[in-house]
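G., the chain you wanted modeled:
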Amino acid sequence: MKLTTILLGVGALISTASCQSVPMAENPDQQRADSLLTRILTTYEVKKYGLLEETWPVDPENQVTYLAEGAEQKKEQEVSYLWPYSGMVSGCVSLYRTTGDEKYLQLLENRILPGLELYWNTTRPPYCYQSYPMFNGESDRFYDDNDWLAIDFCDLYELTKNKIYLQKAEELHAYIYSGWDEQLGGGIYWCEQKKESKNTCSNAPAAVLCMKLYNQTQDKKYLEQAMATYEWTKTNLRDPEDHTYWDNIHLNGYVDKTKYTYNSGQMIQAGVLLYQEIGDPAYLQDAQQTAKGSYHYFTQIQNGSDSTQMRFYPASPWFNVILSRDLLALYETDHYPLYIQTMAENARYAWEHTRDENGLLGHDWTGKENKKYKWLLDNACMIELYSEISKL
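Predicted structure as tokens:
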């Protein structure tokens, strides 16, 4: 498929995204999500704990590079860290939302969430999920890890009205905002054990979380926190040139200007949620400017593995999937389809061109770079993406 064909196809999107379920037999994206979910649960399974491997095949030399600098690196780890596992929670919540099929709720309640609780740390209040299961002792606790899970619990509460999930989201919110202080005028740190920087990845989703909690409880404190967190992040970490977001600001004032898709994405969704509640068009304008800036900053026209020319997002699947959440939220508001349609085309191309003999996806959606060891997070996140684009 040529780039021109993709751009012409953008107009074929429906005017608004629908949450009405479509029979899975008639929806190839839902079929992909369900198939990938099944493959992950069987291929990565660690029966001893009811958890999952970090990579498949298991990499005996795996180094976990996404922990706080200086954190002990565990070789021969028995199961995945929290971040990759959390992708399974998000994927199952999404499939339950888009299909309405109770089997996904049952899977969550009987397998995925019991596994998640093995990461729950009750030795250090306020309680939250830590980076590795408690059977291995205490480990680092990250504010952003708990952001993502709290958002999932909000979404699950919205679907089920089971107050257990709302209580869990509120408990995690309490932990997340224990990481806020007045250094740099506010903001939430990245890691509880390494309070050296305040990051977009901990603040932007916290603003989203607050809006979701406000929408479910109508407690004004959540709305006020959402507005304050949004403004702090915009003031300190927004690039004024293209309206995308830098990674973090150190306590000494140094700004790390690295950019990742998910950081800009969560500020898009936070802006949309604030606009929907308050009605101030400045929030929607912010979201639109950041979406446009992200599209031009992050995507590049490349040849895929079969020489198809397309505009691809970076080789960072989970970051891109978080951005897809935010682009969908914006699309449902302003009905401009280009950004989310490009993401959908990427995901469908990846399905056809990056899967290995186990049916697992690669991290590079162009299919040109294929690693032997498939990271759990690179695959778990795609359950959500296929599920969500099934609505388009």
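The first strand starts at residue 45 and ends at 46.

Shout if anything looks off.
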